[in-house]
Amino acid sequence: MKNNIKKLLDNKVWVNEFGEEKKGISINKFANDLDMYYKTAFALVKREDLSDTKMGTLQKVAEYLEVNVEELYK
Questions:
Q1: CB of 65 within 8 A of CB of 12?
Q2: Spatial CA neighbour of 6 closest among 21, 22, 23, 25
Q3: What is the distance between the alpha carbons of residues 23 and 29, in angstroms, rounded to a whole number?
Q4: Residue 34, burial from CB neighbour count under 10 angstroms (0-12, 13-18, 19+)
Q5: Does the structure show a pLDDT above 80 at 1?
Q6: Which CATH number fits the domain that encloses residue 56?
Q7: Residue 52 and residue 16 in contact, taking contact as beta carbons nearer than 8 Å
Q8: Is the N or C terminus of the chain more exposed, i.e. has fewer CB atoms within 10 Å?
Q9: Is the pLDDT confidence value at 65 over 90?
Q10: SS3 21
Q11: Domain total for the chain?
Q12: Which domain, by its residues, includes 38?
């Protein structure tokens, strides 16, 4: 299950607090938005394989990115 989270974060379009449209989400923003330690988020984004990742974590990330769980590991 090859990790696709980094690519999804890089391509995600979002609106900041000033109403400006931005492309790409940093690992720091990702961690803060998901109430996750930076070290944990960094490891999740950078790992090559998601096969050992808990389904609950995958679901939380998929909801955040507004994608199906399957898209996290293309």
A1: yes
A2: 25
A3: 13
A4: middle
A5: no
A6: 1.10.260
A7: no
A8: C
A9: yes
A10: strand
A11: 1
A12: 5-73
